[in-house]
Amino acid sequence: DAGVIQSPRHEVTEMGQEVTLRCKPISGHDYLFWYRQTMMRGLELLIYFNNNVPIDDSGMPEDRFSAKMPNASFSTLKIQPSEPRDSAVYFCASSSTGVGYTFGSGTRLTVV
Amino acid sequence: SQQGEEDPQALSIQEGENATMNCSYKTSINNLQWYRQNSGRGLVHLILIRSNEREKHSGRLRVTLDTSKKSSSLLITASRAADTASYFCATDEGAGANNLFFGTGTRLTVIP
Prior knowledge:
The complex is a heterodimer.
Chain A: E1 5-7, E2 10-13, E3 19-24, E4 31-38, E5 42-50, E6 53-56, E7 65-71, E8 74-79, E9 88-95, E10 102-103, E11 107-111
Parallel strand pairs in A: 2-11
Antiparallel strand pairs in A: 1-3, 3-8, 4-5, 4-9, 5-6, 7-8, 9-10, 9-11
Chain B: E1 5-7, E2 10-14, E3 19-24, E4 31-37, E5 43-50, E6 55-58, E7 61-66, E8 71-76, E9 85-91, E10 101-102, E11 106-111
Parallel strand pairs in B: 2-11
Antiparallel strand pairs in B: 1-3, 3-8, 4-5, 4-9, 6-7, 7-8, 9-10, 9-11
């Protein structure tokens, strides 16, 4: 297995633009998580899915953020419109019940 | 929140020495996990210890858990320069929850 695959690795966009981050979890994992990491806040859980269903999105900062998981092998995190304060590294992770998470390599987002 | 806190925030040791990092958390848990993050990379799962376990070993890693004190420690023995990274503890919220809350991390530097 190639692990959790995120794309793109780096994204630079202008304020106001739409940004879409993508994640392919490990096959067979039934949980998928989106985290954001910044120096100021550390790792924040944004949203997580179980069997493709969103379970807890209380960490999503505001309505500009949305996430979908149309099937077991794909998820997206969308920011529309993007703002400079959204600049961070966004991680996707997947797991099964009772085992550790496998993280992707992250997407470094810079909004200018 | 359930977010754990690591102590110390930064640790610098000589190669060959042991490194001990501590983690405290606030509420009941099902398990506690430790992760490593190399600069610019995703987190890597190191070890999971369940709430009914007190100690666990994996290679040069030793983890202890004291649920009465709501604390855990990670010991890396005979450290190597390659152990230089940030180390995070992560806890769930108990009651079958599978989402993790990460602490702020300990930045370990092993000097060759």
